[in-house]
């Protein structure tokens, strides 16, 4: 989706751009910033997972600082065709569904993307959620992730103790670090854009050789990329991860095991013994009480031809899932479909 170019760059200490939104969806419309009042302007989107996680936290802060700071969330970068405003209904439905969990002013930008351009792009911010703290004079005093320092920044601003110069220096250093990181990752990104999976793994190995501390950071990514061109090497990596850094991580073991056994992944020469070992370890770590992990174990049994174990494990997974409050309905539906499949297969 094309975005309107930013007319100027902004940063900490600069005057905040105006709030030119397409529609106010909740709360009290904010006509202007500054004028003796502290504002928090946060950018989010309905499709953004981290944004959804941060919404309850923003509500807590809005309540905590009620009467002292005004919180406003602006939806940006929503998916839509040029000039198509139907996305506004989707944003409105999302806000209504969130209800009291999203209890602060909410607005959505227009189709031209002016808010994202004049705020996010102008400030060099390319990820959401991102929050801006605006001081009583309408100046930007802080920029960052809502879950990382916003509470402290607002509290200090209210108390008159926020060191804007220090925040600006911190932002400058962070920008420099981001630029260095961008340069460092450029070769890897090029391989990913070209869908050169082997080349991507080679670039990751170069990064790890130069920065050994990155090994764990890239472990899962490296495994997933290897799987796209060398199943044997990928499964060897999976075994190493299962016996090493992920040995005591039920979530990590389950992720690898599911990736291997899921037919959508398309592993042609599956090492069923490895998949079972990883899935069993994950189940043991969770005392065979986590339905998603049991589901993975059931699929691993099925792929290994152990029908009795597959059926019994899937039954237990479904039973626990049905008794779990707010368990994902789509996941439960898939589990039940597998249970039916295994029942028929066993005859």
Biggest sheet, open or closed, and with what strands and sense?
6 strands, mixed
Tell me which CATH architecture of the largest domain applies here: 3-Layer(aba) Sandwich
Kindly identify the CATH topology of the largest domain: Glutaredoxin
- Residues in β-strands, percent: 5-15%
Tell me the count of domains. 3
InterPro entries: AhpC/TSA, Thioredoxin-like_sf, Thioredoxin_CS, Thioredoxin_domain, Thioredoxin_ResA/DsbE_sf, TPR-like_helical_dom_sf
Protein name: Thiol-disulfide isomerase-like thioredoxin
Keywords: Isomerase
Domain Thioredoxin: 10-163
Structure described in brief:
The protein has helices at 49-64, 87-98, 114-121, 150-159, 164-193, 197-210, 215-226, 231-243, 250-261, 272-285, 291-303, 307-322, 329-346; strands at 23-26, 38-44, 69-75, 105-108, 130-134, 140-144.
């Amino acid at each position: 989706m094309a975005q309107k170019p930013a007319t100027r760059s902004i940063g900490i200490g600069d005057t905040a751009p105006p709030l030119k939104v397409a529609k106010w969806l909740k709360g009290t419309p904010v006509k202007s910033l500054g004028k003796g009042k502290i504002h928090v302007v946060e950018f989010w989107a309905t499709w953004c997972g981290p944004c959804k996680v941060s919404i309850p936290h923003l509500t807590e802060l809005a309540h905590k600082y009620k009467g002292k700071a005004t919180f406003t969330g602006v939806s940006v970068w929503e998916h839509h065709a040029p000039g198509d405003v139907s996305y506004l209904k989707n944003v409105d439905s999302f806000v209504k569904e969130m209800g009291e969990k999203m209890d602060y002013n909410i607005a959505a930008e227009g189709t031209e993307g002016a808010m994202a351009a004049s705020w996010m792009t102008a400030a060099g911010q390319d990820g959401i959620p991102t929050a801006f703290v605006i001081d009583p004079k309408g100046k930007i005093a802080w920029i960052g992730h809502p879950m990382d320092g916003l509470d402290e920044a607002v509290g200090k601003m209210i108390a008159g103790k926020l060191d804007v110069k220090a925040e600006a220096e911190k932002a400058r250093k962070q920008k420099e670090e981001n630029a260095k990181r961008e340069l460092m990752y450029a070769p890897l990104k090029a391989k990913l854009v070209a869908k050169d999976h082997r080349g991507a793994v080679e670039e990751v190995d170069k990064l790890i050789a130069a920065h050994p501390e990155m090994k764990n950071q890239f472990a899962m990514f490296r495994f997933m990329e290897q799987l796209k061109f060398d199943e044997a090497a990928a499964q060897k990596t999976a075994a190493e991860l299962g016996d090493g850094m992920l040995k005591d991580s039920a979530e990590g073991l389950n992720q690898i095991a599911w990736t291997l056994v899921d037919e959508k992944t398309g592993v042609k020469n599956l090492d069923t013994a490895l998949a079972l070992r990883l899935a069993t370890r994950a189940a043991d770590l969770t005392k065979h009480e986590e339905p998603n992990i049991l589901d993975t174990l059931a699929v691993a049994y099925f792929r290994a031809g152990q029908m009795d174990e597959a059926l019994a494990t899937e039954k237990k997974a479904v039973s626990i899932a049905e008794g779990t409050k707010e368990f994902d309905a789509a996941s439960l539906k898939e589990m039940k479909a597998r249970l039916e499949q295994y029942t028929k297969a066993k005859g």
